[in-house]
Amino acid sequence: MMKRLRTLQVLAFWLLCLAGGVASAESRDVQKFFFDQQLGDFKAELVNAKHDGKRGILLMFEQEDCPWCARMKSTILNQSEVQDYYKKNFLIFAVDIKGDTTLVDFQGNETTEKKFSEKMRVRATPVFAFIDVDGNLAYRFTGASKDMNEFLMLGHYVADGAYKTQAFVAYKQTAK
Q1: CA 99 and chain centroid, separation
Q2: Could you give phi then psi for residue 49, rounded to 5 degrees?
Q3: Residues with Cβ < 8 Å from 145, sequence gap 6 or more?
Q4: What stretches of the chain adopt beta strand conformation (E)?
Q5: What is the pLDDT of residue 175?
Q6: For the stretch 50-83, what's the b/e string if a residue is b when 16 or more beta carbons lie within 10 angstroms of its beta carbon?
Q7: Which DSSP letter does residue 27 get?
Q8: Domains and CATH numbers, the chain
Q9: What are the tens digits of pLDDT across the range 61-114?
Q10: What DSSP line would sit under 1-22, residue for residue?
Q11: At how many degrees (to 10) do helices 148-159 and 80-89 cross?
């Protein structure tokens, strides 16, 4: 009886893992392991992305007291599997949509985080904007992903170029 109970417990754990209910990856600090140190010059960062063989740049538009941003950071972006995959393929920066910090946009124009966010038409957070190595918006995902697996799938969708030929919804259906 005890052996059967233990087997059921192990099975329940793995079903939760597969469903995204339990993090199967190691949890690590988001600021240290997910986001890159920002130079404040996105045009220069494009050069760095190309030089490093990245697929592009990922911008996370966020704001203070955003519950969905906090949820992404505490349950998805802090997972080692997510961090390792995204760091391999993208340079990653956070942008405060209400921030006054000066930055240089992808065209070389000096602006603030707030004005840059307005130019990128960000009104709600979080928004994940994937920028290709030529400085063009490749794909934009608004809102929090439902779990780690969906966010990893989003990264593959952009890194593999599937966004050029099909919608993310269709990609998710074929990837399952």
Answers
A1: 20
A2: -60, -45
A3: 72, 76, 151, 154
A4: 56-62, 90-96, 102-104, 110-112, 127-132, 137-142
A5: 82
A6: eeeebbbbbbbbbbeebeebeebbebbbbbeebb
A7: B
A8: 27-175 (3.40.30.10)
A9: 999 999 999 999 999 999 999 999 999 999 999 999 999 999 999 999 999 999
A10: -HHHHHHHHHHHHHHHHHHTSS
A11: 10
On whether the CB atoms of residues 56 and 90 are closer than 8 A, the answer is yes
Tokens standing for 96? 């405060």
- Over residues 130-158, the pLDDT tens digits come to 999 999 999 999 999 999 999 999 999 99
Residues composing the chain: 176
Dihedral sign for Cα atoms in the order 69, 169, 25, 137: negative
Which pLDDT belongs to residue 25? 65
* Reported pTM: 0.84
Residue 146 is encoded by which pair of tokens?
């439902």
User: Which amino acid, residue 79?
Assistant: Q
pLDDT of residue 37: 87
Q: What does the alpha-carbon distance between residue 135 and residue 155 come to, in Å, rounded to a whole number?
A: 18
Q: Which residue has the tokens 């709600």?
A: 124
